[in-house]
Amino acid sequence: MARIDWIQYRLKNWALWKVSGSSGGLGFSRQAAFLAMHVDCNRDSPLPIDDIDAEKMDRAVESLKLGKGHLHKTLQLHYIKGMSIKGVAQEMARAVSTIHAQLEQADQALQAWFNAQAEARDRKNERPVLKVKPGTRPQRARE
Q: 2 with 104: CB under 8 angstroms?
């Protein structure tokens, strides 16, 4: 299993948001979203911080606390504390390969969370389909 690119990108954005304090504590951004910041944690280039996306990722990461606390801790150490994979492995007393596997598992869990959120939003926004025959009045579709 490999890491999921779009999840990694969003995790990096989330880390920048958390580390820079963009959440502001009152629900308002303390920085303009277009500002690029560079923070440790193996980042190749600065990313612009997307506050809305970071808040969603924060909720997704926090959802791991209850059932998958080890994945939550791995993400916190690697992305927020800026620890290397080897450093996270030492901190958690696990093998480097285990940390790689946990990051992959976290990506999968976060992807599932985002998929579930999208499905719930789609169900909420779903409207009944009307079937109309020429020359008749609209009738609600039977489910």
A: yes
